[in-house]
Structure formats: structure tokens, C-alpha cells
Amino acid sequence: MPELPEVETIMNGLKPQIEQAVIQEVVVRQHQLRWPIPLTLNHDLSKKKVGFLSRRGKYLLIPVDTGTLIIHLGMSGSLRIVPDKTPFNRHDHVDIIFSNNTLLRYTDPRRFGAVLWTKDNAYQHQLLKSLGVEPLTHHFTADYLQKRAWGRRVAIKSFIMDSKIVVGIGNIYAAEALFMATIHPTTPAGLLTQTQYQKLVTAIKQVLTLAIQQGGTTIKDFVNSQGKPGYFAQQLLVYARAGLPCRQCQTTLLSFQLSLRNTVFCPKCQPVFNNSDSL
DNA sequence: CAGAATACCTGCGGGC
DNA sequence: TGCCCGCAGGTATTCT
């Protein structure tokens, strides 16, 4: 799915289109996503003016004065502005129609995403309240990661993909950041040195920032709010490159399953960290 | 408690 | 050509 840079890209594209716009009607054709879409959505949102969009992790928040629409794109979701009265296809589950004739369409073939409504502070919502720090803020530091990792044997790749620790990092950017920081993906989180955590934090901030600048990563089907792909895929160092030469040292990149996720790394640039007696 | 497995759903590519 | 299998960018929940 869209990871943090992709959600950020979509949000930035939507801002000028729907902020301050008034919702006329919400049409839901398929309620069964990861959680059911509330039946009251049209009633809750009709005639309401959209405020300032924000993002928390991979959740997009669309506020109106009586509550907030919370959208997650799962693995295959997209959110696009399409011409008014565009015919809908099989996986076009939700249309939000604005009084200025803007049509915002939510599409999600795999239906792993979510469209939820809360009248309360969205940040206190069950799905958001336990989320970890935002990686692009000053709260995300080597010191923070190292403290949270103390005594833990979980693989560092799984650790940085854990949204209770830090949000927004999925399989693509986890692999990229670990390569940039020259850290082997299975290194127990509690064993990384302060220096390694410093390199990792720097790499994560760098790769996410770069990906946002490139409009996100399109491997297969990611498109922004205007239906255009992102360009970061061209700069991927390891993700989707198993069997190809490392861009740094030409060694053949390897892949293996880690917690059921495909994991690519360079065996030379990311050597196994061998100090398992310390835990 | 930590860590691993499982569940949700559809589309696609590869192998036969 | 068509069928079956495995895999895909996520994450809450269930299990051991």
C-alpha cells in the first residue's frame, strides 16, 4: 500500500481541491472494507464544510465541524479527484460529491482499507491513539528508538515497521532505510548501537523525504489524487531488486521471508551483526 | 509480556 | 486457453 510518502502525496494533492469545499452527498456502494463503513456517513457529512486535512501515520484525516472522516488506503486503496459523473467501476466503493461539482472517489480492490467517521477528537480514536511517533518530526531520534528497543530481540526491520513504535514505514521504506544505514534486517532491535540507530534515523528521514519529493513510489498501481504515478521507484536501492547487483558494491542482492514479508538486502553492505551474547 | 501466526480480499503472473 | 498456486505495498487480532 501507500506508505507515509504516498499518503502525504495524496493529501497534498487533495488540499487545494477539497479544503473549504462543501460536501453535497456521500454515496457508498460497498460497505465491507476492513471495517464496515458507517451507514450514517451521508447523513453525517452532507452540507458540511471541509476543514484542513492532516495525516497521522498512514491515516488521512478529513475534518468537518462536527467530526472527522478517517481514511486508510490499506494495500490497494486510492483516492482520486475525477470528473463529475464519471461512471463507476467494480471497486469504486465511495464517492464524495462536493457542491462545486468536485468528485472525490475512493477505490480499493482488496478492501484492506478503511473509511470511518468519528464525532470525537480523531487522535483519540481507537486506531490512532496508540500510534508511535511521526518519523519526520523531532520526536523521532536515535535515543527514542534505542530506549524503545531496550531488551527486545525482534528483528530491526519488524521493529521499525511496528506502528506502535514509529508510523508510516512499510515494507518498501524499511528495506531501503536499512540498506542506507548498512544494517542487516534481522539484527535484534536491542542490539543496535547508538551509532547504528543514528544512521538508521537519518536514513529513514532521508528516504521518506526524498520519496515525498518524488511523489511516492509506484511499483504496480499507486496513483496520486490526480491519477498520476510517483517516481521514486526508479531510485529504489534494494526493494524489488532481489537478484540484481547492489548499486553500491555490485554484489547480488538477496531476499528472504521475515515475518511473512519479502525482505531484500545486500549481503556485503549489510553484514550480519554478530553480538547476540549481549541480550 | 514479546513475538509469531492469522485473518481480511482481489488481481496478477507463473507453471502446468 | 484455462486452472491452480503463491504472492502483493497493511495491520488488528489471536495464538503460543
Structure commentary:
- With 279 residues, this protein is an alpha+beta fold.
- The chain is 23% helix and 19% strand.
- The chain contains six helices and ten strands, in the order αβαβββββββααααββ.
- It has helices spanning 4-18, 41-45, 142-149, 156-160, 171-180, 194-213, and strands at residues 23-28, 54-56, 59-64, 67-72, 78-82, 92-98, 103-107, 114-118, 254-258, 261-265.
- Strands 1-6-7-5 form a four-stranded antiparallel sheet. Strands 2-3-4-8 form a four-stranded antiparallel sheet. A two-stranded antiparallel sheet has the order 9-10.
- β2 (54-56) and β3 (59-64) form a beta hairpin.
- It is elongated, with a radius of gyration of 20 Å.
- The two termini are 34 Å apart.
- The mean pLDDT is 92.
- It binds a DNA duplex (16 and 16 nucleotides) through residues 1-3, 6, 32-34, 58, 72-76, 91, 108-113, 127, 152-154, 158, 161, 163, 170-172, 217, 219-222, 239, 259-262.
Summarize the model shown.
This protein is an alpha+beta fold and 279 residues long. The protein has helices spanning 4-18, 41-45, 142-149, 156-160, 171-180, 194-213; strands spanning 23-28, 54-56, 59-64, 67-72, 78-82, 92-98, 103-107, 114-118, 254-258, 261-265.
Name some characteristics of this structure.
279 residues; alpha+beta; 6 helices
The sequence of SSEs as H and E is: HEHEEEEEEEHHHHEE
Low-confidence parts lasting 5 or more residues at pLDDT below 50? none
Count all strands and give the number.
10
Strand content bin? 15-25%
Largest sheet: 4 strands, antiparallel
Secondary structure class reads alpha+beta
Q: DSSP helix count?
A: 6
Radius of gyration: 20 Å
* Main sheet strand line-up: 1-6-7-5
**N- and C-termini, Cα separation:** 34 Å
What is the residue-mean pLDDT, rounded to a whole number? 92
Which term fits the overall shape? elongated
**How helical, in percent, are the residues?**
10-25%
